[in-house]
Amino acid sequence: MRKLSIVLFVSVVLVGLVLLGLGLVELGGTVAFLARAEQTDARFAGAVARSGGNHGGTFLYPTFRFVTGDGRSMTFTSSSGSTAQPYSDGERVRIAYDPRRPEDARLLSFLTLWIAPVLLCGAGLLLAGGAVILRAGLARQRRGRT
User: Fold this and answer.
1) What is the reported pTM?
2) How many domains does the chain have?
């Protein structure tokens, strides 16, 4: 039984550390993107409808048009969609884009930029940290009984 608890503890800590590592990689990628990106206004230009999801419905992925610093007109579709369209025609939003690759553009929003790193790092810290704290508490409790 003792061996099983050690294997379980190590497994949970390792999964937590992997999630934390993935979150830090995502965080680094977002920070690097923002460091090289230029910001501008974009206008909502419609949505791309895609079927899928657990409920089998249609998701709408907003499409935006913007002009780069060197005058090129670009269009990009957001990677996050929803079942309802949150934008009205022509609505202005703030975006960031890579000036060397302007097709790499992202909405300047918490959901688009930070949700993946926050969730991955949070889950990793909860799993690894929780397992360590729980194991330390159980070890302290066992020492108190003897």
Assistant:
1) 0.80
2) 1
